[in-house]
Amino acid sequence: MKDSAMRPIRALLTALACLPALTANAAAPSFDYFDANRAMIKRGVQAVLTCNGLFTSHRTRERVFEQELAYMGPHLGAATGGDYRIDELLRAVEIGTEDNPPVMRAVFREGIGCVVLAPDQDLGDIDRLPRVDIPPPARDPAATPWPQGDLLPDAPPPAGIDAAALRAASNWAFNRASPEQVTLSLLVVTNGRIVHERYAAGVDMHTRTRTWSTAKSIAVTLIGLKVDRGELQLDAPLNIDWLPELADPQADPRQAITLRHVLNMSSGLYPVDSFGREYATGSGLAYWAGASSVDGARDRGLVRTPGAFWDYENYDTLLAVYAMKRTFDDDDDYRLFPYRELLGRIGMHHTLLSTDRFGDFILSSQVYTNARDLARFGLLYLNGGVWQGRRILSQEWIDFVRTPAPASAVRGHDYGGQWWLVPDGRDDVPRDAYATAGNRGQYVIVVPSHDTVIVRRGLDYGAQGFDRWDLTREVLKAIAPE
User: Fold this and answer.
1) Could you count the other beta carbons within 10 Å of the beta carbon of residue 332?
2) Residue 439, helix vs strand vs coil
3) Angle CA(240)–CA(326)–CA(224) in degrees, nearest 5?
4) What's the distance, Cα to Cα, between the start and end of the chain in Å?
5) pLDDT 10s digit of each residue in the chain, 482 long?
6) Looking at CB atoms within 10 Å, which of 110, 289, 322, 421 has the fewest?
7) DSSP secondary-structure letter at 21?
8) What is the C-alpha to C-alpha distance for residues 435 and 137, in angstroms, rounded to an integer?
9) What is the dihedral of CA 397, 402, 407, 411, to 10 degrees?
């Protein structure tokens, strides 16, 4: 055979010989282009959690390093010291040094909690950070009867409570087989009365800790107030000025996204907080690295039909919060609205809603509060939006948050409007129960059929896995149904 005829065969054999090498290269780990982001965010997580642990929760440095920082894995230094600095006077924390960058900083601000700074800011920028002057309560909470205040009645518990079964449920919550499940508090309210209240060492009824995504249920409540007033519409476009802005904004396909879509976690926007992108991009940059929560939320492209695909995204919540903000003409009115129209009215005087450094509420995660305030929040829903005879939230809005999001069908219809629902197939808890849920085990569980609210606060870490519906089952063993 002539050499010219052999050339194609030799080329084919050479190509086939190269295939294993090509396959091996394709399977090799790819370069992490988000590595710098991850390093910055990790330092920011430590800065924010340490700052809030010390100056919002008033925990000791030892407790902060032992519990608040446990879930993030290895971190800089220890309670005894390291490459970090705590400024007690400024109520500020710096993680990292010039010799060990990046340096991330967080500072406590009145009425907000700790705000994370951008990497190019330092403590000289503190006075430029937002603060909120929360209106003081009209009456001293310590001298005001529950539930508006913290004064409990000196009376026997209501009928229908099995005290032994309630103690067993409490022990079930606190004495976990996994050391990664750390219960800080458990509070049970039945017939409007606190029938059980228990705290871990170093925690009491005043201790404020981070709600994580339980904040989303507070966000949807504030948004519901605006819908009830006709200032927002559930099935109208969000009225967002999307980024990047098109020459004709009305031609933007994202104009099809409604408030219902984002509250149902089915916006159809490109995912940035799931599919392995956590703590690398998306809301992580706003939570922990000083980026704008608003700009990041509205700078995503549409990749699916709105309403068709369920995807848990912090930015979907923040889009709804931004749509709410756009109903205000004044930033001060926006920042005081939660306290004037919700928190102050139902006695949640211990609750701080955090913002980014631009003054926008990060109501997808960053709220600090205590167990009693969350119990009050649960009671508002349990009572159909009525608080001590005054309607605050419509029954229609409560019905919406309890209605399964259509796209959650593939998950067992376990998600409504920023509240979690009992999944299909679970028959050991009442079907009418619904719950908030936050990272590290933050739960407010509302059970209308038993006239009960259950609050569990945790500092879980690692695999976590504390099951809110298992807790509901155990507590309800002690409480007769209505």
Assistant:
1) 11
2) coil
3) 100
4) 93
5) 444 444 544 544 444 444 444 444 555 567 888 899 999 999 999 999 999 999 999 999 999 999 999 988 899 999 999 999 999 999 999 999 999 999 999 999 999 999 999 999 999 999 999 999 998 999 999 999 999 999 999 988 888 899 999 999 999 999 999 999 999 999 999 999 999 999 999 999 999 999 999 999 999 999 999 999 999 999 999 989 999 999 999 999 999 999 999 999 999 999 999 887 788 889 999 999 999 999 999 999 999 999 999 999 999 999 999 999 999 999 999 999 999 999 999 999 999 999 999 999 999 999 999 999 999 999 999 999 999 999 999 999 999 999 999 999 999 999 999 999 999 999 999 999 999 999 999 999 999 999 999 999 999 999 889 999 999 999 999 998 87
6) 110
7) H
8) 28
9) 160
Give the H/E segment covering residue 63: helix 61-63
Other C-beta atoms within 10 Å of 27: how many? 8
CA distance 320 to 298: 11
Contacts of 256 (CB under 8 A, 6+ apart): 237, 302, 306
Amino acid at 481: P
Q: Which region holds residue 455: left if phi is over 0, alpha if psi is between -120 and 50, else beta?
A: beta
Gyration radius of the chain over CA positions:
25
Sign of the alpha-carbon dihedral angle for 352, 357, 361, 367: negative
What the block records as the tokens of 191 is: 């017939």
Mapped to the 3 state alphabet, what secondary structure does 227-275 carry? HHCCCCCCCCECCCCCCCCCCCHHHCHHHHCEHHHHHCCCCCECCCCCC
**Residue owning tokens 């919002």:** 56
Distance, in Å, from the CA atom of 481 to the CA atom of 469, rounded to the nearest integer, reads 16
Quick check: 150 and 376 in contact, CB under 8 A? no
Strands 113-116 and 193-199: unpaired
Structure tokens at 170: 């409490």
Helix ranges (DSSP H) in 271-329? 283-289, 293-297, 314-325
- Token pair in block for residue 400: 């919406």
Residue recorded with tokens 């980024």: 243
Angle at 316 between CA 44 and CA 111, to 5 degrees: 50
CA distance 435 to 468: 8
Phi-psi region of 388 (alpha: psi -120 to 50; beta: other; left: phi over 0): left
Cβ–Cβ under 8 Å, residues 323 and 283? no
**Could you state, in order of their start, the residue ranges of all structural domains in the chain?**
35-128, 133-210+356-482
CATH hierarchy code of domain 133-210+356-482: 3.40.710.10
Amino acid sitting at position 207: T
The neighbour count for residue 161, using CB atoms within 10 Å, is 18
Question: How far apart (Å, rounded) are the C-alpha atoms in residues 206 and 92?
Answer: 22
